[in-house]
Structures are given as structure tokens and as C-alpha cells.
Request: fold
Amino acid sequence: MASETSLLKDEDGRAFGSCTFLFVLTTLPALLVLAACGSSKKTTGQSVVTACVLPDDQANSLQGHWSSPPIKIAFHAGEFSAGEKGMIQSAVSTWNTFFSISKGLAIFEVSAAESPVNQTGPTCVGSTIPDGIVLYKRGSSWTRSASAVALTTFCTTSAQGGIPKMYNAIMEFNYRDFFNGAKNPDLESIAVHELGHLLGLDHSCGPLRSNAANVACPGPGSGNFLLSTVMFPTVFFDSGGNGEVKRALHENDQGRANCLY
Ligand SMILES: [Zn+2]
Reply:
């Protein structure tokens, strides 16, 4: 048994090249801004990837899977506003819509009731938590890296030659260092990414948690398609402190996710 973590790091600056300029000057919805940058593939009825597609250079990027979806999710009691819940629910819907089309599967189920369970990490020994995966909004109680916007931690059984089975997890959002007026990530985009981890996806590039080989992450402004994947490990901020908006699954995210379920 093991407890593993996946985090979404931040990066300052002039990311996305000319797109940063658009971010600053336009009042258009952010999705349109991203579309103007070129390479983002949306999850639409026409473009859903239904096959398992795992490129050789991403072969080590499947971390685990759940044996019996739906994966239950609950908000920790008294922390998230209705608006925040709505944005996370939208991220859940993005994955649910995708898996509904590709596999006929209801992958996530969000509990209407908040959870009183209070964890600092997932319990990997002993009983499972009936509330499912509890989401936490951490302020001064954030204990992880200051550069991590969010973190998903889960337990796995041994792989035994296949993809490890996941059980128990927590998802934490860093409201100490982000969402604070100075640095404002797009919560829905962050949640789409973390839910990808919760499904069992590792990042689309870069050093993986296992330190196994994987395709290297391209630099911002390179135009590489990996920058448009929701599972890219870094979120970029414009000069005003606003995080990029990346709410739609890229075909690369979809193809890899199909290999898990
Ligand atoms: Zn991540």
C-alpha cells in the first residue's frame, strides 16, 4: 500500500506568449481567449475520443484506477461557498460527460451532503470512508509546498503487473497561497486537473511521481499541444495574477483516460 501525491504547480509570468497579451487586453470570455491561442481541443459531441490512446512517450503516465465507479466525492463541511462548489461541479460534469459518451459510464458522483470527516491525508490502513473522496479548502492549514495550487493524494494497492487499484483519496486546494486576490487560479480548471489525478492520470509530461521516463514538458509559448492538455503540470498566470483557463479536455487527456476504465 502506498500513499501518492499529485500536485499542480504554478508558474509566474509571461506564459503563453502572445496569449498573455490577449489576457490583459480582452474582456472576452476566457475560453474564447484560449481558442484564439490555437490548439485547444474541446470536449464536444464531435470530438470525443472513445479509444484508449497511450503514446509511447507517455507510457508511464497511468497511475491507478478505481475498481467500481462511480467515484464518490463529498465537500468537507463548512468550507466551500456555493459558487466554489458550482465550479468544481462543472469540472466533475466535464469528466462525467466525457465518460458517458466514451464508455457509458458515470465516473463521478458528488454527494449532496457535506462530509464531517476531517483528514490530513487519506487513510490507507483500515476501513474505507463511506463519504468517499473528501475535498478540502485549506487556508492556514495548508501544509504542502507553497507553489502547489492543489494536491490530490490517494492510496493504491500493488500493481501486480497491471494498473494499481486506487482506494481512498483526498483533494486539497491551496487557499493560503492562491485564490487570494494576488494569485487567482481558475478553480474549475484546477478541479478538472485534480479530478484527472483522482481518476488515475499522471501528468501529460515532465517528471512523473514515479520518476519514470515520460515525454519532457515543452516551454510556454512553444505551441506544443501538451500545453493544451488539462493534465499539463503547470498553471500559468498573467501579469495580473489571473490563472489560465483550461476547462476542456484535450484529446490527449481523453485518450489516456480511456485506458483506465
Ligand atoms: Zn497535477
Summary: The radius of gyration is 17 Å. Residues 6-8, 193, 197, 203, 233 surround zinc ion (CB under 6 Å). The chain has one domain: 2-257.
